From TrEMBL:
This is Cytochrome P450-like protein. The chain crosses the membrane at residues 6-23. SUPFAM superfamilies: Cytochrome P450 (SSF48264). PANTHER family: CYTOCHROME P450 4AE1-RELATED (PTHR24291:SF187), CYTOCHROME P450 FAMILY 4 (PTHR24291). InterPro entries: Cyt_P450 (IPR001128), Cyt_P450_CS (IPR017972), Cyt_P450_E_grp-I (IPR002401), Cyt_P450_sf (IPR036396), Cytochrome_P450_Monoox (IPR050196). Its cofactor is heme. It comes from Asbolus verrucosus (Desert ironclad beetle).
């Protein structure tokens, strides 16, 4: 065979690859999406130019859902396709499935920081083992011990906010964000970084840099691809941030591991209660000790899960608490009921009381208020699933390769399940019998639901209770209209401003 013939055959093979891809994979996906309405598209771009910013992403999805229903086909560029879903029946099928476990491919942009931890893991044997190992860390006996940490960090928060008492337009988010980072560091790793008093914290900056870069990479065509991203300034920033975050985590893990080695067995036995649960343990202690069927986590896996817990447990609780406080500031009647519940529990002197786990469980109206805040301002308004095998739903085959956007905020704002959805009304959660179970999914649901949701609810209740007992909250002056955006979590691009004064 001549050299020319070889080149010709190689050229033909290269040309046939996209044709093969189209007819074996892409065409099947395109035919599947013919079952669903598609918003008007542009040549080549499809619907992509409707999603130019993080704030446009959220408003566009609401516009599509309102115009086309709860199952919408969105075309992203010349070959990209995604199903935007806020239908409770399909969400129940999707999220309860033990086969559809892969999350959105965009999460890979967090892997330099989080590795293959629970949030990113593909749902295979490693994920199942880790989930089983880590679940006991959220036993109520463990959560009970975290309340003291919630209290001490929120005492600092109250002190900081007291200095701003009388403000008519205060952006509350930075204060809450620093407080929740202090909390997650102490509950996850047993270490204090005190970012509420140390605004120059390198760790705090590293977390913010990684979250910002994740959002940018999901939105940017150029930075989406690793080989192009490596030539950008953000790649250098990411390298520095990951080093700071990993160095700190590794240092804490090494110290904890050494402490465990040095501890004598007779002393260790005294640390266990009747249930066999070690007292005063943080997340890191528990996963260092954890094993299932003789299998424990490797040092690298422990690092991944601690970093995952830091990521998942910081911004979600910060943004949720912030928006709930905004709702209370703008709904005096609800705020008064929350405060009255506090007075019924603690008497007139509600400021200095030391709140316990049992007290937090008794705050039923506050819990409904928290749930309503999670509905109206869903901390994670959208998340994804990747269909990695052909699967049947309602007589239709969903082909391998389909991407699904779970539009949690869409179903939370559906008037079919929540009449007058724009209204902040905690009474919606006094009885949920008539509401489909998958119509409220602030922490996802099913097999891959948020493992730390009980921790999150407890922390949010603790923070909101503390602030309401110490401050009266008011609408911002001048009136503040938030510019909402779907980033790593729901954010307001122009802050979350309220007025407050000491009680």
């Amino acid at each position: 065979m001549s050299l020319l013939t070889e080149y010709l055959l190689a050229f033909i093979a290269v040309m046939l690859i996209p044709i093969y891809y189209y007819y074996t994979k892409l065409r099947r996906i395109e035919k599947f999406f013919e079952n669903f309405p598609t918003p008007p598209t542009e040549p080549f771009f499809g619907n992509a130019r409707d999603f130019t910013t993080t704030s446009a992403f959220l408003t566009t999805l609401h516009k599509y859902t309102k115009a086309h229903g709860s199952m919408v086909h969105v075309k992203m560029g010349p070959v990209g396709h995604v199903l935007v879903c806020s239908d409770h029946k399909f969400l129940e099928f999707l999220l309860s499935s033990t086969k559809i476990l892969k999350k959105s491919r965009n999460l890979k942009y967090l892997s330099p920081w989080l590795g293959d931890g629970l949030v990113i893991a593909d749902g295979g044997p490693k994920w199942k083992t880790h989930r089983k190992l880590i679940t006991p860390a959220f036993h109520f006996k463990i959560l009970e011990q975290f309340v003291d940490i919630f209290e001490s960090a929120s005492d600092v928060l109250v002190q900081k906010l007291s200095e701003m008492s009388g403000s008519k337009s205060l952006d509350i988010y930075p204060y809450i964000s620093r407080c929740t980072l202090d909390i997650i560091c102490e509950t996850a790793m047993g270490t204090k970084i005190d970012v509420q008093n140390n605004e120059a914290s390198a760790y705090f900056k590293g977390v913010k840099d990684m979250c910002r870069i994740f959002v940018i990479r999901t939105m940017s065509i150029a930075k989406r691809y690793d080989f192009m991203f490596k030539f950008t300034k953000d790649y250098v920033i990411q390298q520095d941030a990951v080093k700071v975050l990993h160095d700190y985590t590794n240092q804490v893990i090494d110290k904890k591991r050494q402490q465990l080695k040095e501890k004598k067995q007779e002393d260790k036995e005294k640390d266990f209660d009747d249930l066999g649960i070690k007292k005063k343990k943080v997340f890191l202690d528990l996963i260092l000790d954890a094993s299932v069927d003789g299998q424990s986590l490797s040092p690298e896996e422990i690092n991944e899960e601690v970093n995952t817990f830091m990521f998942g447990g910081h911004d979600t609780t910060a943004t949720a608490s912030t928006f709930i406080l905004y709702c209370l500031a703008n709904n005096k009647e609800v705020q008064d009921k929350v405060y009255e519940e506090q007075r019924q529990l603690f008497g007139d002197d509600v400021k200095d009381v030391k709140v316990t786990y049992h007290n937090l469980q008794e705050m039923k109206y506050l819990e409904n208020t928290v749930k309503e805040g999670l509905r109206l301002y869903s901390p994670v308004p959208i998340f994804g699933r990747h269909i990695d095998q052909d699967i049947e739903y309602d007589g239709i085959t969903i082909p391998k390769g389909v991407g699904v956007i779970v539009f949690a905020h869409g179903i939370h704002m559906n008037p079919e399940y929540y009449p007058d959805p724009e209204k902040f009304d905690p009474s919606r959660f006094e009885s949920c019998e008539k509401r489909p179970p998958y119509a409220f999914i602030p922490f996802s649901a099913g097999v891959r639901n948020c493992i730390g949701q009980k921790y999150a609810i407890l922390e949010i209740k603790s923070l909101v209770s503390k602030i309401v007992r110490n401050f009266e909250l008011f609408p911002s002056v001048p009136e503040h209209k938030m510019d909402l955006a779907a980033e790593t979590v729901l954010k307001s691009l122009n802050g979350v401003k309220i007025g407050l004064k000491l009680r």
